[in-house]
Design brief:
Elements lengths: L2 H18 L3 H31 L6 H9 L7
Helix pairs in contact: 1-2, 2-3
């Protein structure tokens, strides 16, 4: 999953949460709860790719990216 894809998802989720409540702080809190796990998945995958690249284990990177890119199949 790319940063651009996350940004599009963020926009959709934020719009949904803002439409559910007039309280902006409440909407932002709900947005954070909904987005945390997905964003954490991308951050952790990026860290793993960096470690593999630095260790010269590039052959393992495509498999990791394939598993990470499967995340968009899950509902946001």
């Amino acid at each position: 999953m790319s940063g651009a894809a996350l940004a599009v998802e963020d926009a959709v989720v934020l719009a949904e949460e803002l439409s559910r409540t007039p309280d902006v702080l409440e909407a932002l809190d709900a947005f954070g709860r909904r987005r945390h796990d997905r964003a954490a998945l991308v951050v952790e995958a990026s860290r793993r790719v960096a470690r593999l690249e630095q260790a010269g284990q590039r052959t393992e990177v495509p498999g990791l990216l394939g598993r990470t890119h499967g995340a968009p199949a899950a509902a946001i």
